[in-house]
Design brief:
The chain is mostly helical. It contains 5 helices and 2 strands, in the order αααββαα. β1 and β2 form a beta hairpin.
Length: about 100
């Protein structure tokens, strides 16, 4: 198998470019959401101390939302990969022998 030929194939390059762009955007969103907790607690402590129900305050709810956000990011990636990236990769797999032998 000629892996250099597969790497040079425009379809593989497009797959890699689109996947990288999608992953970087998910990572940027995740980091921004994560940093909102310590920055919000530092700059807006009165908001984070606001009680919602009993001992539960907005800061605690926001901290717990980090788990929901992580599951949401995983779901978004799995859904997008299943719809877009997997089809592109399957096409490349089907033609890998031809692409690798052509060079």
């Amino acid at each position: 198998m000629n892996w250099q030929a597969i790497d040079a194939d425009p379809r593989f390059q497009r797959l890699h470019r689109e996947k990288s762009r999608f992953l970087w955007s998910l990572m940027a969103f995740s980091i921004a959401f994560y940093l909102m907790l310590p920055l919000g607690a530092a700059w807006f402590p009165e908001v984070f101390r606001t009680r919602v129900w009993g001992p539960v305050n907005i800061g605690l709810l926001f901290a717990l939302s980090e788990f929901a956000m992580a599951w949401g990011v995983a779901f978004a990636y799995a859904r997008h990969a299943g719809r877009r990236f997997d089809a592109m990769a399957a096409e490349l797999r089907r033609e890998a022998a031809v692409i690798g032998a052509a060079s």
